[in-house]
Amino acid sequence: MKVTLIGAGSRQFAGTMIRDLLLSEPIAQQGLDIVLMDIAAEPLAEMEAYTRAVIARLGHAAMVSATTDLEEAVTGAAFIITAIEVDRYHYWSQDFTIPRTYGFKQVYGENGGPGGLFHALRQFTPLLEIARAIEKHAPDALFLNFSNPEHKVCEAISRLTSVKVVGLCHGYFMGARQISALLDRPREELYLPAAGINHFQWFQEVRDRATGEDLYPRLREIEREANWVSDWHEIALSRILFRRFGLWPSPSANHIGEYISWAEDYVPAQLQYFHDPAEGSPWREGAATPEWHYHIGQVDTDRPFHGARTDETLMSLEASLEDRPLESSEELAIPIIEWVGCGVERDLPAVNVPNRGAIPGLPDEMVVEVPARVENGELVPLQMQALPEGVLAMIQRQGSIHRLLVEAYQEESKDKLLQAILLDPIVDSHNRAVAMLDEFLERQQDALPRLV
User: Fold this and answer.
1) How far apart are the first and last CA of the chain?
2) Burial 74-112 (b: 16+ CB within 10 A, else e)
3) Which of 164, 238, 262, 436 could form a disulfide with 102 if both were Cys (CB 3.0 to 4.6 A apart)?
4) Consecutive H or E run containing 354
């Protein structure tokens, strides 16, 4: 079984996938050929050496090779797993800051909001290049994508190619852990089907897996009794959405908040990429990209006055590959491979695939995040309950934005992109939206597709 990892120079992504692959007994029984691919040769060589070291430690029979050639990497592969970004923090700092400069109270700026649109447009070209290589050289392969914005890039791939693509994210498990903590019950004891879009899922049921007891009434009691400031930065927005719309959302406040116009009431976002604008653009020649912080609750304000930058600290943590324990992650790529490629049934609670009727009221071609199973070797979404009208309305709008975005890319249309921007719930000015769009196109011209 040939499994190709694209973006294999990433210590975080590739290290996790390598450990998961090599720890899978069903895959080992099939015989495993791992191909590592990246356009950066030096980190790729490091990951190849790490893979060989893990194979030796486990006494595994897997083969491994590395290449910078995309065609060679995908030819004959049964599964292609991808996680790619280009200058992630540099461009993300723009995705976050530029909309806020024009008065749009966007939080996070990764998957939703105006920033998420430009993030997606930068990702479309390299990911569609990979998809078209798969289409040509491995047409029966399953493309497992971890690259964000998950729903937007998977929708572009599924609409514009014939490739079988599924998007994967661990956001579902973040929400499941929140419910588990509030109920003080192990997650394994809970039945938690969820439906929506990536980073904006809603748990339709909360039940005891053994008895079938409905635990939503108890969750409502516990939430009402809980201290409001407890874990504020992760779940305050989730709690108010739960009260207003009746279902618990996932994954966390800053992710969910990207799709909501009033999220800043519950998501203090100012420190994500803080800089002093009076000192000039943080993206000017020679300037350092502002530090990234996941949310204000994780900002290291106790650091020395001349402490290390956050991104340097992250790189240092990622560099310690040899110290990582050899244990499986909760990512769903390998369970999917075990079911599709080995016939071993697994729990697949959250995959990003075209809707095909899974969530009533949403278009068939819209990429949604739902549970799935494998039937006749194909990954298919499970039929879900209808979502409450308020929740459905928020998701329907995102579906229209995604479709317009893909059409803007396909048609090279600045007008279609502007339509998508103007549909976003946080955008409240046509003139400022036009000015913002023009600045994005100017600043990110080397990474964005041509639009006229």
Assistant:
1) 44
2) bbebbbbbbbbbeebbebbbbbbbbbbebebbbbbbbbb
3) 436
4) strand 351-354
